[in-house]
Amino acid sequence: xxxxxxxxxxxxxxxxxxxxxxxxxxxxxxxxxxxxxxxxxxxxxxxxxxxxxxxxxxxxxxxxxxxxxxxxxxxxxxxxxxxxxxxxxxxxxxxxxxxxxxxxxxxxxxxxxxxxxxxxxxxxxxxxxxxxxxxxxxxxxxxxxxxxxxxxxxxxxxxxxxxxxxxxxxxxxxxxxxxxxxxxxxxxxxxxxxxxxxxxxxxxxxxxxxxxxxxxxxxxxxxxxxxxxxxxxxxxxxxxxxxxxxxxxxxxxxxxxxxxxxxxxxxxxxxxxxxxxxxxxxxxxxxxxx
Length: 290
Fold this sequence. Notes:
Layout: H1 3-67, H2 78-90, E1 97-102, H3 114-125, E2 132-138, E3 141-151, H4 158-161, H5 169-175, E4 188-197, H6 199-250, H7 266-289
Helix pairs in contact: 1-2, 1-6, 6-7
């Protein structure tokens, strides 16, 4: 096995190990970045939903209540306003969802599913927790969910959710007296849940990974070509000349030209040493012949 082959095999082995390490590292980095982007999108959507809630509370409710003294359903309910507006978003992005789930909601459609209840119970068990993230598979696609607690901080909320006898009659008539009551101050009754698909971000991460690995492969191929060329010019070609010269001398061909060594590297020093050895050998042969 020649020097060139040994060198190339060694380089291929090193590259294989480096490529495997780079693949593991970059895949984790790109996946982390993809997840970070999805979380950022979810937070933007959550901010948009909260903006609708705030507008309803600050603008819609006072304007409506100036004209009426009783409860107006569901125009003055911030949760209804946020979820209704988000349904318009889902018309173009059906994989994105927003829900305000509760363990005991006024509207049965807002009742928490099991996985949503897990978020709510997590907030109830840890009052200091203000945000939670989770991932799940939906029809074979990975979905990230951002959740924030819905906690009773305003006593005005209890007007509608403490007991049926003090709740607005129109609300009780619309939703009944069995749901959405018994809430207490500082109690976490539900959670805002934004779910965002991860497929597009993960595909982008995979594409970036393949691009990065392609660049590394191209760099390695260029280095291999450059090293092989350098190996041939600096090492293999001078050694081949020395081999031919040594073979000729060993066969008694005295007319063989001397090896011309130039430069100050190890190959040049080896060539000069070979030339001195050849001259010494020729001189010894002449002395023996005389």
